Structure of Spermidine/putrescine import ATP-binding protein PotA:
Amino acid sequence: MIELIKITKRYGSIIANDEVCLKVDKGELLTLLGPSGCGKTTTLRCITGHCPPDYGEIFIEGKNVTTLPPNKRKVGMVFQNFALFPHMTVFENIYFPLKIRGMNTKEAADRVYETLNLVQLSGYESHYPRQLSGGQQQRVGLARALVYQPKILLLDEPLSNLDAKFREEMRFEIKELQRRLGITAIYVTHDQEEALALSDKIAIMKEGRIHQVGTPEEIFEKPKTIFVATFIGLSNIIEGAVSAIDPVTLDIGSNLKLTLLYRKEIKIGEKLRVLIRPNDVEFLTDEGEEKHNIFEGTIARVTYLGNKMDYLVDLPSRLVIRVQTDLTSRHNPGDKVKVHLPVNKCKILS
Ligand SMILES: Nc1ncnc2c1ncn2[C@@H]1O[C@H](COP(=O)(O)OP(=O)(O)OP(=O)(O)O)[C@@H](O)[C@H]1O
Ligand SMILES: [Mg+2]
């Protein structure tokens, strides 16, 4: 439905998009996730046609639209800092852009009522924006994009100015609407939780480049780079050099050795970085059968998070491991503990 091929966009010395390649299938919701300034809005503006790329091509439904003006692309967009017209009612806010485009009065009005119904704002036609809550205003913003019945909807941080609880509600409303209408969507956010909850696919972006595209599970379970691993979810990154191959052993300082799953391409002396998620690390009370990856440490910090405990554990050689457990484990700062990093949970990053 949407395909970007090596989209490149510079602003002076800044490369906002650096050979961005992306494919979104029909009916799919892809989130573009990355830190501020990484080029997310620029990517969307290239797709709408508001920002012609310096290089690269854009296809929509198999058709090359790279040089097509925005109004010929049938792409709806909810802008990052959208503003409703304060002196116009909800009805007028949605109706006005249709009139400007020359749609006849009756058809335009019908569409506005239909769209308001879709975003559950029927009855609010004659309210002014200042009489609406933040979430209702967001929905008017959404209605302004949906009123064109776009096949493609681009949403640029549409929930960024809502509080946490309401964001969660709204995000599922948007997802539900997108699925029901069969719209293909790209959703920009820098909130990883939002991305994991909403997406069919996530594209992780940094400094103008896409680092990895995959399902939420793939991105979380098999991050390809250290950036992806640390950007999505909490992570411990352990570095070291390979000192043995069978089993694969990493020297991580102070005589500590980390055992990893066998991989045939690994060579002695090679430097590796390993990811282990805090909720995959365990405290051992009794060693039992475990032989590998047990380290003695001291609890440095304890944080109660309501549904789980979060610990920082000091290991020798200035290694600090973050551990998250359920509420049944209770340790205090200064306690001596044994942490276990299960071999199959230690993932080698490229
Ligand atoms: N019109 C412009 N003129 C000059 N530089 C620009 C322009 N638009 C964007 N940039 C620069 O391009 C880079 C990418 O900007 P973009 O708006 O795409 O980032 P973003 O990922 O959407 O960030 P945010 O999460 O803060 O919205 C930034 O360094 C930004 O300063
Ligand atoms: Mg932006």
In short: Helices lie at 40-48, 90-100, 105-118, 134-146, 164-181, 192-198, 216-221, 226-231. The mean pLDDT is 91. The chain has two domains: 2-231, 236-349.
